[in-house]
Specification:
The protein has about 575 residues and is an alpha+beta fold. The chain contains ten helices and 34 strands.
Length: about 575
């Protein structure tokens, strides 16, 4: 796939009409992000499943319009004059819309690097920044004569999702979509000021705080030192769910101590885990609201004060936003297609707004609801907590998947695992359903689900596919080098354990990497999508593919030249 050049990607000065939808139509919308109109009397939602924007009259507390603008929209950023920016990770574009007299129209569509996730905009709305997850890229677009033009793009060493523009510092903060990397980029030329690793994952919704001197974020922390038993889960030793304020001065300095000057509010406590923070909003008086996706709650608290109050809302809230007078919080109940209204002072849900009738769900869609639910003891975590959106957070966990404690192992990605049985590092579970029951009961220490629910969750997992190869997405694939690497892969007998088309085999093998409990044989993970993963091996000992091939020489029968190493890595990255 050729690289995308730094040219105007789409020129669209004329208004392109959005499709107005029947509000009585049964559908699954799945609102992901919220934005307020400039007058504060309308709420807009970006709906992932239906590719639409819903418009809500906040005084009447009812949906007054729905407009299909894309194939899937997953973010919503306010621009001046009731214009808004959305990302469509299916069509791989950024969409600018306008709201006028309760009508939404599409102003322009701009192709960007694949799988765009979030956007940030300058105060005048003339410069925007876009994160693209799987290509690991950040793009800057500038508007001239009502046309968006890409002016800069960089590739990061991690897959970016959330971002925040700090105009007073000319800095863009970008967060890892899976792990704990936080990058500080110069907003002008996107040069890297710093990339720091923080012991966190599932970083969500960066928010400016303390007059721009700090950045607030919601995240989770997983400890590989804790055992996944009742005691360690109950006391929050395995997984914590937090809101944290990090100093900008630390974020923009390489190899800095991000703990210096930071502060943190833990949302969970023994007995009430409150898993999966998915969104955060901060009011001018330091009230804050955090959406807790796994436990269907909104947490209300105040910075520099003790105490958090949890309010029950709809299924998997993914975003929160304060009303114009900051007396109410609106939560996007993603899997219920509703908006919950929470009174900040009363700390209770005082209303629900439906986005429209909900159609009957498929087994896989029922499974999606289970995947994101807090199935663990006391709701500390969901499947998503470790397998972010079906992928993995790159961390290790000490659980009974190997029938013992004391040998934590890397969390496996679930993308593309449909036909790669058996499951688990030891390859002891023949089906998704067997692995699901074991994980819920022995790893999450929750109440087991029914066989029908396990079938639904398995159906959802079977829909999870690997993204296109990393070099195709970045436009750097060398076909000749890939072909040479493929030939080497066969010559070196890599196919013995990693046989195409799944690039795994159902057996277990001793490859010389034994764990601390004496396990010697492991089932080889599929190599499909391996270019998007890392670190590697059950003990995370291989940081990069270059290290696996060049330094560790994993199961290689002979030394490889530099050219051969590069070819083999190119082939692996092509899977």
């Amino acid at each position: 796939m050729p690289g995308l050049p730094l040219i105007t990607l789409l020129l669209a000065s004329a208004v392109i009409g959005a499709e107005s939808l029947d509000l009585k139509r049964a559908d699954l919308r799945h609102p992901q992000r919220l934005a307020m109109s400039s007058g504060g009397d309308r709420l807009l939602t970006a709906n992932r499943n239906s590719g639409s924007v819903s418009l809500i009259d906040l005084e009447k507390r009812e949906t007054v319009g729905e407009f299909r603008v894309g194939q899937s929209v997953t973010s919503l950023t306010s621009l001046p004059n009731d214009h808004y920016l959305l990302t469509d990770p299916v069509a791989h574009e950024v969409i600018e819309i306008a709201l006028v007299d309760d009508q939404v129209s599409v102003v322009s569509r701009c192709a960007v690097p694949p799988y765009p996730q979030r956007t940030a905009a300058s105060e005048d709305g003339q410069t925007i920044y876009v994160t693209s997850l799987w290509p690991k890229q950040v793009t800057r677009l500038e508007k001239a004569a009502d046309q968006w033009r890409e002016t800069k793009r960089i590739t990061l060493p991690f897959a970016p999702r959330e971002l925040l523009l700090l105009p007073q510092r000319d800095t863009l903060i970008v967060a890892d979509g899976f792990g704990g990397n936080l990058a500080a980029l110069a907003s002008g030329d996107l040069s890297v000021q710093a990339i720091n690793q923080f012991p966190a994952h599932n970083i969500q919704r960066l928010h400016p705080a303390d007059d721009g001197n700090s950045v607030a974020l919601a995240h989770q922390m997983l400890s590989e030192l804790a055992y996944t038993n009742d005691n360690d889960i109950h006391w929050g030793l395995v997984m914590t769910n937090d809101i944290r304020w990090l100093m900008v001065d630390a974020l923009v300095k390489q190899d800095s101590n991000l703990y210096e000057g930071n502060r943190m509010h833990s949302i969970g406590e023994p007995g009430v885990g409150s898993g999966d923070p998915t969104g955060i909003a901060i009011a001018s008086n330091d009230d804050y609201a955090v959406a807790m996706g796994a436990t269907n709650q909104v947490a209300i608290g105040k910075d520099h004060a003790y105490g958090i109050w949890r309010v029950k809302v709809g299924a998997r809230p993914t975003d929160v936003i304060f009303s114009a007078d900051e007396q109410l919080v609106y939560a996007a109940d993603s899997l219920d297609d509703t908006i919950s209204i929470v009174d900040v002072k009363k700390r209770e849900r005082v209303g629900v707004i439906s986005l429209g009738p909900v159609r009957e769900r498929t087994p896989a869609e029922h499974g999606e609801r289970i995947f994101y639910r807090g199935l663990s003891l006391e709701g500390w975590m969901s499947c998503h907590s470790c397998h972010t959106d079906g992928h993995a957070n790159g961390l290790a966990n000490d659980n009974l998947s190997d029938e013992s404690y004391g040998a934590p192992k890397r969390i496996l990605s679930l993308l593309g695992q449909r036909d790669t049985a058996p499951y688990g590092w030891l390859g002891k579970k023949a089906t998704f359903q067997e692995q699901i029951h074991k994980s819920i009961v022995e790893t999450m220490r929750g109440e087991d689900i029914t066989d029908e629910q396990a079938d639904h969750l398995a159906a959802f997992l079977e829909t999870l596919t690997v993204p296109p190869p990393i070099d195709e997405l970045q436009g750097t694939r060398d076909d000749a080098q890939v072909a040479a690497g493929k030939a080497l892969f066969t010559e070196l007998s890599c196919v013995q354990c990693h046989a195409p088309p799944t690039y795994t085999t159902p057996e277990t093998y001793d490859v010389g990497i034994h764990d601390k409990k004496g396990n010697e044989e492991f089932n080889p993970p599929s190599l499909l999508g391996v270019g998007h993963r890392g670190p590697y091996f059950h003990d995370r000992s291989g940081v990069t593919l270059e290290e696996v091939v060049g330094k560790q020489k994993h199961q290689l029968p002979r030394d490889l030249s530099a050219e051969e190493q590069a070819a083999l890595i190119a082939f692996l990255r092509s899977l």
